[in-house]
Amino acid sequence: MKNTLDVIKERRSIRKFKPEQIKEEELQAIIEAGLYAPSAVNKQSWNFTVIQNKEVLDELNVATKNVAKCSDNEFIKKMGENEKYNCFYHAPTVILVSGKDDERSKVVDCSAATQNMLLAAEALNVGSCWVELVSLAFMGPQAKELRDKLNLPEGYTPLYCVLLGYKDMEGKAAPRKENAVQYVR
Ligand SMILES: Cc1cc2nc3c(=O)[nH]c(=O)nc-3n(C[C@H](O)[C@H](O)[C@H](O)COP(=O)(O)O)c2cc1C
Asked: Is the pLDDT assigned to residue 118 strictly greater than 90?
């Protein structure tokens, strides 16, 4: 197992996965890492939906892209219009992270849980990517149908997902931003 500081530096977004499913013990360790994230006032305002069904993922991808197509953001619109684009990059496992609607810190809590899962995946040498685009599907006309299909608990809305699978590419680190730190000593 790699040490924590190496895991943080070596984690990169993976957007090409091998079709082989990850091991159940890897999945459970990653989920546990998410559940152990810090949260404001310990509200743990998250809910995780593990999706390993290709048909459901395909449906969710299409629903996401249908909403993306109508975006006034050119970058998002282009992703929606690109027939070849798969917002899950064909990852065999997707964990949908939903936030409790009436919790003030849901976005921060869910972000902490998401990052914990990405780091746990890297520690296990499982490829991962944080994907927000999927949240669009739950703002569009298929929202209710998708919520029912995924058995989403009442009062929670999907914010992000974590893609998981064995890496089929090398992740490359973008250069780090300069002048992002000031010291007062
Ligand atoms: C809030 C958030 C939303 C993101 N949404 C997407 C997404 O929808 N699709 C995607 O391919 N990557 C997404 N990413 C991944 C970023 O593009 C990626 O983290 C960034 O380019 C830095 O690359 P690295 O993860 O390899 O360090 C998201 C990351 C964050 C933190």
From this structure: yes
pLDDT for 164: 98
On whether residue 181 sits in a domain, the answer given is no
Mutate to test the pocket of ligand 1, among 129, 160, 161, 176 (most ligand atoms within 8 A of CB): 129
Residue carrying structure tokens 């109508």? 70
Residue span of the structural domain in which 62 resides? 4-165
| pLDDT, tens digit, 9 for 90 and up, residues 156-175 | 999 999 999 999 999 888 88
Q: Is residue 48 in a domain?
A: yes
Q: Burial, 98: exposed, middle or buried (Cβ in 10 Å; 0-12, 13-18, 19+)?
A: buried
Q: Tokens standing for 85?
A: 């684009």
107 lines ligand 1 (CB under 6 A): no
- The total domain count for the chain is 1
Distance between Cα 100 and ligand 1 center (Å):
22
Strand order in the sheet with 46-51: 46-51, 93-100, 156-165, 127-131
Asked whether 12 lines ligand 1 (CB < 6 A), one says: yes
Alpha-carbon distances of 178 from 9, 10, 165, 174, 175, rounded to whole Å: 16, 19, 32, 12, 9
pTM of the model: 0.97
